[in-house]
């Protein structure tokens, strides 16, 4: 499955993205990149940071909707068995007679709904589901920024802008933004950098353009490697991954899990229905949610690497970084299919396969 995934990502990102990036280079570097620091209290005691807290989870809301569906289905089941046998037979016969029309109407509704929410994504050359407006995503991201910053100032320290590590990461990010200033999605956004004083070798981004880099990452990565990692975070925002993955999760819940939950709770007693729904939810999470997440990470790796290449970094540093990560984190386990990210080895091989495209890009950028 991974080889298929890699092959697909290499082919779709190597040509159109390189073309777009070279266009962006030619279209001009108009101004220096800008970044700002969040206005938060910085000096708080250093404590262990729970990285899971930083990830946006949508599970609880999904569970509530499923519980509603199961209770609704159980109510239908209760009402059904209260009906006289003759009436039940009549309804069952009618459903059998019109089953094709019912299925066709359902599929038409779903098709219309999805087709109205599909957008062509020029970065990937794919039609993608975006259910939420950018304004909604931004509003949610702004709230998320406030929550994450509050959580971090409680649990650890954020580095001052004068700190050497902050200045180093800011320099790397500034170079990256400057080189890719011709990309609309980069030029038209206000990017912010937060450097967290924590040994985790990690970084993440919020949809509003807040990039969080941990000092542990800055300690093990050289400037070129740091640029590739920050490029990965920029790529998540450029490719609108937050909107897309939330749209996919929402569609799976609304169009798949909720109808299945209703059917199961009509067909089965309450407790068995709840158990079956939980199993379905888990299967969908592993098969759709996690697979999608790994695929988007692979995309961000590819685009981020090319953004960094456009900033004239040493393109051999990408897979060297993932080799270092493999040494730090140890070999991948057999439960890779339960991970949100591809293994370090796969990421390294993927980045390595993109070197020829990155070198071509650097020729165009006259690096
Ligand atoms: Zn990522």
TrEMBL record:
The chain crosses the membrane at residues 97-115, 200-221, 273-291. Binds 1 zinc ion per subunit. It comes from the Eukaryota. Residues 186-353 form the Peptidase M48 domain. Its cofactor is Zn(2+). Gene3D superfamilies: Metalloproteases ('zincins'), catalytic domain. GO terms for cellular component: mitochondrial inner membrane. InterPro entries: Mito/Outer_Membr_Metalloprot (IPR051156), Peptidase_M48 (IPR001915). Keywords: Hydrolase, Membrane, Metal-binding, Metalloprotease, Protease, Transmembrane, Transmembrane helix, Zinc. GO terms for molecular function: metal ion binding; metalloendopeptidase activity. The keyword Oxidoreductase does not apply. One of its GO terms (biological process) is mitochondrial protein processing. Belongs to the peptidase M48 family. PANTHER family: METALLOENDOPEPTIDASE OMA1, METALLOENDOPEPTIDASE OMA1, MITOCHONDRIAL. This is Metalloendopeptidase OMA1, mitochondrial. It comes from Acyrthosiphon pisum. The lineage of its organism: Eukaryota, Metazoa, Ecdysozoa, Arthropoda, Hexapoda.
């Amino acid at each position: 499955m991974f080889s298929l995934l890699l092959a697909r990502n290499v082919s779709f990102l190597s040509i159109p993205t390189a073309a777009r990036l070279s266009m962006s280079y030619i279209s001009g570097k108009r101004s220096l990149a800008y970044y700002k620091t969040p206005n938060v209290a910085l000096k708080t005691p250093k404590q262990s940071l729970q990285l899971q807290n930083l990830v946006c989870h949508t599970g609880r809301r999904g569970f509530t909707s499923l519980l509603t569906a199961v209770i609704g289905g159980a109510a239908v089941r209760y009402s059904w068995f209260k009906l006289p046998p003759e009436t039940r037979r009549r309804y069952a016969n009618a459903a059998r007679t019109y089953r094709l029309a019912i299925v066709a109407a359902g599929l038409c509704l779903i098709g219309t709904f999805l087709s109205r929410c599909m957008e062509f994504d020029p970065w990937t050359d794919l039609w993608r589901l975006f259910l939420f407006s950018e304004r909604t995503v931004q509003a949610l991201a702004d709230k998320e920024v406030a929550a994450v910053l509050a959580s971090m100032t409680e649990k650890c320290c954020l580095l001052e802008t004068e700190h050497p590590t902050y200045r180093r990461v800011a320099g790397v990010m500034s170079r990256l933004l400057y080189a890719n200033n011709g990309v609309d999605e980069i030029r038209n956004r206000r990017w912010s950098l937060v450097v967290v004083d924590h040994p985790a070798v990690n970084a993440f981004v919020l949809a509003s353009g807040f990039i969080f880099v941990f000092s542990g990452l800055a300690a093990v990565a050289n400037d070129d490697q740091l640029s590739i990692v920050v490029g990965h975070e920029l790529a998540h925002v450029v490719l609108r991954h937050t909107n897309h993955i939330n749209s996919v999760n929402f569609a799976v819940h609304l169009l798949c899990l909720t109808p299945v939950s209703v059917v199961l709770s009509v067909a089965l007693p309450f407790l068995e229905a709840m158990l079956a729904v939980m199993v379905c939810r888990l299967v969908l999470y592993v098969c759709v949610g996690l697979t999608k997440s790994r695929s988007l990470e692979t995309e961000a790796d590819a685009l981020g690497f090319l953004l960094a290449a456009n900033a004239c970094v040493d393109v051999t540093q990408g897979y060297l970084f993932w080799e270092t990560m493999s040494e730090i984190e140890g070999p991948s386990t057999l439960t890779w299919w339960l991970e949100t990210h591809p293994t370090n080895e796969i990421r390294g091989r993927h980045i390595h396969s993109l070197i020829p495209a990155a070198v071509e890009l650097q020729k165009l950028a006259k690096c």
